[in-house]
Specification:
Blueprint (H helix, E strand, L loop, with lengths): L3 H33 L3 H8 L6 H22 L6 H15 L3 H23 L6 E4 L1 H13 L14 E5 L4 H32 L3 H32 L7 H11 L1 H40 L15
Antiparallel strand pairs: 1-2
Helix pairs in contact: 1-7, 1-8, 1-10, 2-5, 3-4, 3-9, 5-6, 7-8, 8-10
């Protein structure tokens, strides 16, 4: 049985390594939310390819087309010809989603929404988060005018405030965002410190390194599984009339970095564990060879048997 101090060291080492392996995926999640999602440039770059996604374009065409028809109904009575007008409006909007102007509008709208939400999370205002779509409309108008679209220069640029977040949700989101900012930095640092301390305290450091690698790989696999479960739950909570393929494309785009981080933890952990295992076997073989060499009796040249000639 190992001496009591050795058992205490191994127990402390195991606790620190287990804590480090638990904090590693949590730190990756917090860092992703605090530094990847909270960066406007990265967010716009992440969302930009979705402007060419067919599911996203269909969802936008349906939503915008329905909004246009509601606006037309509010101003003009088109009920007798509504069935004939709706397909035309949908086709027109769907055609617009394939243009360069739509891509510019998509990027501008995402930037405007992200900037508005970020400003609300960093200040103490208690008003609804709104976005003025006038800059987006102006950008679309300029692009359509350059493309010589008829009557594009007559498109009215009106300041329209669109609500993004209600005021009652801001306080809870603001507290969570500040917690993520702190956790996104300190959780990864704490994971590294606990892992190194656990390895240094262990009586068999090679075994501790192997355990740390396997635990890190397990944490990365659990994080990847959590992302998959989160996708399923997110889509399941959407209303029935929502475009789930488009929502799935948005979810996949936003969590791409998080999935890469989870698989990086898996690969890094398995690599460290395998390297420690192979190094241990090589060291064991060297020790066995040395022991065999030292245990073999030495032979003096005078003790060599002489050959007797016939």
């Amino acid at each position: 049985m190992a001496p009591r101090p050795a058992r205490l060291r191994n127990a402390l080492s195991a606790s620190l390594i287990a804590l480090a392996c638990l904090l590693a995926p949590c730190g990756a999640l917090a860092a992703w939310a605090a530094y990847d999602l909270a960066d406007t440039g990265r967010y716009v770059t992440t969302m930009a390819p979705l402007a060419g996604d067919p599911d996203v374009r269909d969802a936008i065409a349906d939503t915008v087309g329905a909004g246009i028809m509601d606006e037309v109904d509010a101003r003009v009575d088109v009920s007798p010809i509504r069935g004939a007008v709706r397909p035309y409006v949908h086709d027109a909007v769907h055609s617009f989603t394939r243009t360069e102007a739509f891509r510019l509008a998509w990027d501008a709208a995402n930037r405007a929404v992200h900037d508005a939400v970020l400003r609300a999370l960093n200040d103490e205002s208690e008003q609804d988060v709104t976005v003025d779509l006038a800059p987006v409309t102006a950008q679309v108008k300029r692009q359509l005018t350059v493309d010589h679209v008829p009557f594009a220069n007559r498109i009215p640029v009106e300041h329209t405030a669109v609500s993004v977040l209600p005021a009652q949700e801001l306080d809870r989101l603001r507290k969570g965002f500040h917690v993520l900012e702190v956790a996104g930095f300190w959780l990864p640092v704490a994971a590294v410190v606990f892992a190194l301390t656990g390895i240094a305290v262990a009586t068999c450091r090679r075994r501790a390194v192997t355990a740390t690698g396997l635990g890190t790989a397990l944490g990365g696999a659990l994080l990847a599984l959590a992302v998959m479960i989160g996708r399923r739950l997110t889509l399941a909570d959407l209303p029935e009339d929502a475009h789930q393929p488009a929502a799935g494309a948005v979810y996949d785009a936003l969590t791409a970095t998080l999935r890469q981080a989870s698989w990086l933890l898996v690969v890094l952990g398995l690599t460290v564990a395998l390297a420690a295992r192979l190094t241990g076997r090589r060291s064991l073989r060297l020790r066995l060879r040395r022991r065999r060499g030292s245990a073999a009796p030495g032979r003096d040249p005078a003790d060599r048997p002489t050959r007797v000639r016939a």
